[in-house]
Each structure stands twice: as structure tokens, then as C-alpha cells.
Amino acid sequence: MFSQSIKRSYSAATNVSTVSLKLVNTSGTGKKQGLAHLLSRYNFLDTAEKSGLRLVRESEVIGGSFKSTPLRDGSIELKATFLKENLPYFLEALNNTVSKSAFKKYQFDEEVIPAVLNDFAKSSSCSQLKAKDLLYQLTFKNSVLGQPVAYDQVDSISHEEIKEFASKLYSASNAILTAENVEEAALKQFIAENDFLKAIPQKINSSTTTKSYVGESAALRFASESSTAAIAVPVAEKDFATYETLKNFVTSPLFKASSNVSKAEFETYADKKVGVFSIYATGPAPANAIKSIVEALKKGVNISGANKFTESFSGVKSNATTYKLDKFNYVAVGKTTELPTINEL
Length: 345
What we know:
By secondary structure, this protein is α+β, with helices and mostly antiparallel strands. It has helices at about 35-40, 50-60, 85-100, 105-125, 125-140, 160-170, 185-190, 195-200, 240-250, 285-300, 305-315, and strands at about 5, 15-25, 65-70, 75-85, 175-180, 215-220, 225-235, 265-270, 275-285, 300, 320-325, 330-335. The longest helix is centred in the N-terminal third of the chain and has 20 residues, at about 105-125. The protein is globular. One of its GO terms (cellular component) is respiratory chain complex III.
């Protein structure tokens, strides 16, 4: 049996399909930060079946693309987008990446490391991304969720350690397969003929709940054209639907301070039974923006108007009615002397 989701496509391009294979880090990456980022950059390079160059050229010729994304909890999501009739080719490519990667040493030195360092440089130049990393560090301390996604080079990680991490993460028992706008019969037939994919379980065993903290704050001086002030709230599994609705509410005209919201996120880590709701105010002078956001949420808001939207576009059924902000974590990044402290919110 396999954990599979087949979604209806709302795109006008109904001949375009997507398949994602998520490898869930159920045990944590250990004390070394950046393993998932480094491993993710190995994806879609050489395998036992073909070279990475050949894979790229073939996929481009038949109108498809691949993407590999490291996640904050040490998981990795591989995604393929392609024309509907090419499902077998792209499923095989995803399978070969997680079960037959060559992990060549020269590619680690010449391709993986330079790409990872470039990713880190980009994330380090953005006040909003720095604020997000800081919020997660406050919320989860030294657990895997409290670490940055981009490899920061603080820990030395070898080629052999990447291979060892892959041997643990790239297991069918950690996999979740999701498909959108595909022929279901063709998908099931391919899975039945593939040893790795057919071994994917219906449900991944949950790990213990990750401990979270609230009421924390931090400030980071950072030279940038824009500063960021942001808040975050750790969310228990039972409240996931409410905070998914709240995310949609604060970015809609229903929320009187929505124009001050630069970004709102609700990210869940189901196997760790925790989520994080966050709101960011980013700009040359976001002090008044974050104050107005927090003030409005502390007074309490009726979020029921976002229930139908949440169910239609997020796929989450919600009966949420009102929400009132209590304790939260807060970070200020940039010109911190011009941003409020947590006691001023």
C-alpha cells in the first residue's frame, strides 16, 4: 500500500501534471545542521541509470521539469511537473533519484557545495528570511525545527555523512507520494511494478511531539534596505484548521490591518504534531505595521468569513469563528533601534 493523494487540477493547462515525493525526516538529522540542504542539492544528478545531464536534456525535450526542496524539519520534497502522457518517465526519474543516486565525490565538491553556498548567500541577504530563521530558533530552540534550512557551514559535513543521511531518509517507510491531474490507473500500475514505490506505507508513524516555546523575543541588527518585524505562534495539531483559516483571513480584505501584512505563513509538521503560524511586516520602516497587526489580533477578530475560502483552496475544513492573540514570539531584524520591542506590542 502507499500514501497517495490525487488532486483535481484547477489549472487551465489541464494536460499538465505534477507528482511529488516527500521523504519525511521522522528521526531528526542529529546535531549537524544542513544535511537536508546538502542532500537535496544532490537530487537529479547522476544515478546508476543515467547522468544528471542526460536527465535534464531528456526532460526539457519532452516538456518537463524537476525541483528538490529541503524542508526545515530535515525532510526533502522532490517534485516533477510534466505533460500528462509522460507520467511513467517522471515517476521513474523520481524513483531512481531516491533509490539509485550515485553520490559521486567530484559532484559533491564541484556542484553540490557551490550550489549550497549560493543558496546560503541568497538567504543571508534577506531580512525576512533571517527573521524566519530567528523565529523558529526561538520557538524550537536546539531541536531540528530550530535550525536554519540553508547550510550555514558552522558544522563540518563530509561526503560520507551525506550518503549516510540519505541511506536513512530515502526509505519507502518515510515516503509520501502525491499526484495531481494524472491518470489514476496508470499511476497505480507503475507503482505496482516498482519495488520502492509499492513499499510506501499508507501512513507514516508519528514521532513524539516536538517541544515548543512562546513569549520569546530577539533582535538582530542587519544592514539592508528593508527591515522585518515578525511574530510567530506554535500551534498544536488540534488547532491546525483554525490557523490555516487565520492565515487566509489576515491576508484578505476581511482583516482591517491586511495592508500591513507583508507575508503570513502556516507551516505544519504533522509527524511532529506541531505547526507554526507567522506574520511578517517588511519594509523601510515596518514598526507601525507590526503594531497595528498585533493590536488588531489582540482585540480579537471574527475569522469565520475565511472558512469557505480555506476549504476550497487549502483543502482544510474549518469551523473557526473567532480568534484572539495571546502569547507569541517576536523578532526584529534590520534597523532594530527603529523597531518595537515585544513589550511595546
